[in-house]
Amino acid sequence: MAAPLQAHSHKAAVFLDRDGVLNRVLLRDGKPYPPTSLADFVILPGAPEACRLLKERGFYLIVVTNQPDVGRGTLKQELVEAIHAHMQRLLPIDRVEVSYDSGDENPPSEFRKPCPGMLLRAARELGLDLSRSFMVGDRWRDIDCGHAAGCTTILVDYAYAEELRQSPHHRVKSLREAADVILRLEPLLS
Ligand SMILES: [Mg+2]
């Protein structure tokens, strides 16, 4: 039996980008955009099973999402909050970290991906071991953020019309595939 004080000292998380990882994106000119209504928020096939498998292995599941349209005034924060409440009814997500920063902040917000502030805050509050944690995302900001936090990075690769900056540790086609990679690697990181 682990001592209570050490209960969280070995804990690891899977940090999940939201749009394109958990839910369908809206594509315009080869680039992904977030849903702008509850009706547009559609969970991707395999995402519930992937979340269930990762939870069974003992990972915290933490959504880390940039929602800059709120900061820009073109999307209501209440709508994003309603989407997240809905998402947490459908998926076993432990925590949701959101950056509403517009991206125009100077200096840039430490909480907007690619900066790792959302991951560092969750790690501090939950006692997570980032070196045994994973970041799964579909864009360069997710991958660079995961690297900055010291996590293993996994790109869900949709071949968007935009370049990566840093290379991910692994590439997959879905969160379901990412879960298989994580479950295979997890014993090696212990
Ligand atoms: Mg995304």
Overall tally of domains:
1
Level of helix content?
A: 25-40%
| CATH level 4 superfamily | HAD superfamily/HAD-like
Assign the CATH class.
Answer: Alpha Beta
User: pLDDT average, as an integer?
Assistant: 94
Q: For the terminal residues, how far apart are their CA atoms?
A: 17 Å
Describe the global form: globular
Rg on CA atoms, Å: 16 Å
Would you summarize the structure shown here?
The protein has helices at 47-56, 68-71, 77-90, 117-126, 140-149, 175-189; strands at 13-16, 26-28, 31-33, 60-66, 95-99, 134-137, 152-156, 170-172. It is an alpha/beta fold and 190 residues long.
Structure report:
Helix content is 33%, strand content 18%. With 190 residues, the chain is α/β, with parallel strands linked by helices. The chain has a single domain (13-189), classed as HAD superfamily/HAD-like (Rossmann fold). The protein starts with 12 loop residues before the first strand and ends with a helix. The structure holds magnesium ion.
Give the SSE map.
Elements: E1 13-16, E2 26-28, E3 31-33, H1 47-56, E4 60-66, H2 68-71, H3 77-90, E5 95-99, H4 117-126, E6 134-137, H5 140-149, E7 152-156, E8 170-172, H6 175-189
Parallel strand pairs: 1-4, 1-6, 4-5, 6-7, 7-8
Antiparallel strand pairs: 2-3
The structure holds magnesium ion.
Main features:
six-stranded parallel β-sheet, two-stranded antiparallel sheet, alpha/beta, Rossmann fold, 6 helices, globular, 190 residues, 33% helix, binds magnesium ion, disordered N terminus
